[in-house]
Design a protein that fits this description.
This protein is mainly alpha-helical and 148 residues long. It has a domain of 75 residues: Recoverin, domain 1 (Orthogonal Bundle). It has seven helices and three strands; from the N terminus they run ααααββααβα. The longest helix has 21 residues. It is found in: Cytoplasm. Keywords: Cytoplasm. It comes from Menura novaehollandiae.
Length: 148
């Protein structure tokens, strides 16, 4: 005579076997399905206090890490000072401009937090019909304040 646990296991095996036959074959042979990362985690229920605390703590750590990446007021002032110091003449009306060479110099001096903004892609994105191939310092600074 089989125990209740053995009966349940046998029932599960039979269920899996018949389900797979009905579905049209055995388990998928495609290995990539086992490599797909999990991207959805259900929210913890109200009675799962430990999981709720873990979620709150991980969110707080994430937000702290993101806030450390942001430029503080002093760093923004330093960036503006460097941009202003390295502007390339002539000005267009009241608009100060900077060429790519000086843009890279400012990127080296501005510090590690600013490094992400001093790329050719961003320079090209902000380049608008300037006959000397320059970008507006104000437009770049506003870009950094929006994105950073």
């Amino acid at each position: 005579k089989k125990s209740e646990q053995e009966l349940k296991e046998e029932e599960m095996e039979l269920f899996t076997k018949y389900y797979m036959e009905w579905k049209g074959g055995k388990k998928s042979d495609n290995v990539s399905y086992t490599n797909i990362p999990r991207f959805y985690y259900r929210l913890p229920a109200e009675d799962e206090v430990l999981l709720q605390k873990l979620r709150e703590e991980s969110r707080a750590v994430f937000l702290q890490r993101k806030s450390r990446e942001l430029l503080d007021n002093e760093e923004l002032q330093n960036l503006w000072f460097l941009l202003d110091k390295h502007q390339t003449s002539p000005m267009i009306g009241e608009e100060a401009m900077i060429n790519y060479e000086n843009f890279l110099k400012v990127g080296e001096k501005a510090g590690p937090k600013c490094k992400q903004f001093f790329t050719a892609k961003i320079f090209a994105k902000l380049l608008h019909n300037d006959p000397y191939g320059r970008i507006s310092i104000m437009q770049f600074f506003n870009y950094v304040m929006r994105k950073g």
